[in-house]
Amino acid sequence: MRDEFAGSLARALANPNLTGALTRFSETYRISRAQAYEGIDFAALRRQIAGIKGQAAGRLPELAARFRENAEALGAQVFLATNPQQAREYVLAVARRGGVRKVVKSKSMASEELHLNPFLEQAGLEVTETDLGEWIIQLAGQRPSHMVLPAIHLTREEVADLFRQEAGERLSSDIPRLVATARARLRQRFLNADLGITGANVAVAETGSLVLVTNEGNARLVATLPRIHLAIVGLEKLVGQFEEIYPILTALPRSATSQLLTSYVSVISGAAQNSDGSPKELHIVLLDNRRTEMAADPQFRTALQCIRCASCLNVCPVYRLVGGHVFGKVYTGGIGVILTAWFDALKQAGDIQSLCIQCGQCVEFCPAEIPIPDLILELRRRLTEQTPPPLVERAIFQVVNQRRLFHGLLRAASLAQKPVAKDGFIRHLPWFLSNLTDGRSLPAIAKEPFRDVFPRLAQRPGREKAALYAGCLIDFVYPETGAAMVKVLNHAGLEAVFPEGQTCCGAPARSSGADAVAAQNAIDNIEALLEPEVRYIVSGCPTCTVALQRAFRHVLEQTGRHDWLGRAAEVAAKTVDFSTLASRLAAEGRLEFPPGAAAGSPVTYHDSCHLKRTLHAEGPPREMLRQSGHELVEMYEADSCCGMGGSYLAKHPEISKAILARKLAHLEAAGTGRVATDCPGCVLQMRGGLDQRQANIQVKHTAEWLAKSLDVDKDG
Amino acid sequence: MRSDPAGLFAGFKSRAEAVSAEVRRFATRTEALGFVLSFLREEGVADAPDCFAVWADCPFLRRCDRAALGREVPGLRFDVTPETAAAARVGISQMEWAAARTGTLVEDATRVEQRLVSSLPPIHVALIPTSGLVDDLAAAFGRVDPRRAAFLAAITGPSRTADIERVLTIGVHGPRRLIVVFIDDLEGAPA
Ligand code: SF4
Question: What is the pTM of this model?
Fold first, then answer.
């Protein structure tokens, strides 16, 4: 299984057609989507959708019963299928009773979840997908690689080839010609079919209506031409009231295809007449397949809010490299991982969940407000409960927990590499990190950790005290960042203290699903940080800041350590990230930079994922860089992930490297020669990549650029 | 203008044209009919397979002499079946509402002919009373109770796909041209 996965991953990364197509799409998508949303308050809209769908998820059985009653009153036959097998058998029974030989389908992800086509084909039926992308996929014998654009991974030449085999004639790869061929070939299928199978984008309980959204117009043909219409509808498509379809119809086309509205919206409420005057036989299969169970899970209920727009795929830095055949099963991308774990089996999500780099891009775009990365983390935790991580991984956590040992080991590795270390970078590590260095140099471990440097730093005494929380990277690798933070804070009249008992923030353990380890980290830190009388707890690492502000409480709750929650809240209330605190001090008039500092030298800013999307603090560092005398030049996609992702580096070095390459190209294109960021992890990742490219670009933590500006007086 | 007191036409036109629909407007039914007939001739409608035009029964048509129309444009048929519609070059139907915000036409398409003429032929001519202009899709759907209309249809521009290399291509399964004909003196559905 593992090898198969690794193989498909390697093939995807080596496929320039795939990566190129997805990357170009991800770039144009953002622009066209933004245009489609012009004049719309996205935040309010998605709150509304999350409200509607969240509420509905809370009462699925009731809505299903009402839907059934209302649709049946209008002549439909509604069947509630508990599991895929029941659904498949119902469909086959309908087909048998109706003497059906030929079936046409429009796009329905629920039917894919049922693996319906092979089942019906085995029973001797001819099944044709009529959505162009789905038909291409059917001809190719593949599964969709994207929820909205199923064949996005195929080129026109590949499509021409498939059509040639199907049509038995030579075809040019001209796209309009290919589309015309599909139209002609599928037209006969529509006219000859006895059964039409569709999905539905929304199902309204109050009116028994199905809402179908398409651009090609195939769904209305599938629902109109054959004698029998059967719709397969996941329970999560239910809403209560008819008015509730509008927010969904506002968001879905905009988020899915950057359109104000799709070409066709059909609302089917009960059975209409066939063209020969006979009443249409209309069947609606409501598919549960663990959806009610999911709705009862307080964490995963939100995943039922999904409207299948696929924007979470389009903006995902990993998806755009590997595509949906690697990242997903029937459902693709981040949300696909979650749905696979439920509709298929938790185990099935084992490999694919590891692909999530936790950058949070998808959360910004999701019109249903689903916290996709958090849910994936929770899956990870549940998977770890089932199958503990390999021994070596656990050993690493144990070591990370014992800071001195950890540091000692890293130092040993560092020293062993002395002969090949160059300019502060280690080319190859012999140890468990050895596969990380391809395309990225690892930093030399600092000779002295920050905790040993700290007591020697000169400080003026201050009225107020701030506790520095260093985190592993600043402590062991970049003590100079810690020193810069002390300098800036002290300049503003704060006296920094360093509580000795602090330890790893637990993020690495948590992101691997090892919550017990993370909880112990939380407790050790809380004890250490609450000890001195301080006004602030300052962190220069956004991942640590998030841990201190939020994850401690979460993980303590998860592991039942409720007695610590009060103190965790105290820590959270005092915790602030470095740049936000600096900008507050500047606003209070306590932090000023000498005139002429930095002399307007240009700097470009890289948003770390956690600072921007979890802490929403993209403004303060930029503001402080300007105040410290720099000209701020924005790079392209400043907020796209650099590929670091903590332990991601170790799990998927190839993906990490590819994401980094893109980031570096943007750094270079900004042409500033200076890069600021607020995350030591991003510093590590970007410096490592630049070193291997031998590019002359300085990457520093914002604190260091600010500290440098304060030096200007002395430098003259 | 009396038939479009809210001045929604301009908005509809620009939205619909942005998604490749063609929009015309006539003051009277007579002018509109003149346009439709000459359009059919220009498009080569004739009494031969793949050259028919099919016109679904509608209020506009009920005030016309069908036999005379059929004589004027041979191949123009009023018997709408899957077979005739599939063999037609042009389909004509009357729509009820036009949502300005998105350039969308809305109809109660419960009668199957309505759907056949607007989905099977490569060209769809949609007649619409100018008084049917409303602000948005919700306003249009809001005029009908879905429990009394088995099939509500909203159409925004011609049929399209981007399934091959994301290249936008018009006219997959439905029409590749949508011609919207607003008629000021055509009575609309009761509000
Ligand atoms: S999770 Fe959100 S962004 Fe992803 S498909 Fe569902 S609604 Fe769209």
Answer: 0.90
